[in-house]
Amino acid sequence: MGFQDIRFTCAAALLLACMAATAAGPAPETPGSPLVIAADEAPALPYDAGALRVLVPSVRTGGAYALLELQEQAPYRTPAHVHPELDESFYVLEGTLALEMDGRRHVLPAGSWVHIPRGTVHAQGSADDGVVRLLTRLSPGGFEQFFLDRVELARTIGREHPDFQQRMLEIVRRYPQWLGPAPSAEE
Question: Which of 52, 99, 125, 126 has its CA 20 to 30 A from that of 46?
Fold first, then answer.
């Protein structure tokens, strides 16, 4: 199987997973109606790590999932963290993703797919000096609001501002069901 076939298979698997979650989960905003979101309905919004597009907000899936496009600039990397009540999946659209998960490092080029079950310790970012662009599925939905809060933070102060870290921690604390620190080695 060639690289393009693998990329197509991964993209198809992502779309089928999203459709299955919608069918199995709560009804969409308008039950029984197809879900179509045009490109202009999901503008790119700058935030501290790069840019965000909320392609499918959870309100459109009855909370079953949200689908985001994240464009993360190097050298941004998340700290090690867990999602206590959230499954997260990435499909690498562009660039190379560095992912540390359960003590192993993965370098994932465009066309790669990863699923991170809830409770799994992980950290990610660009593997090199380039941008990494990800299709990100969050299940259940709702955690996209964390990213929208970061967009608002980026509008008011930059990462270099002395209050940035404190304000970012305030945002993190709003979502304990979806975002937490990696457990310490003593736990």
Answer: 99
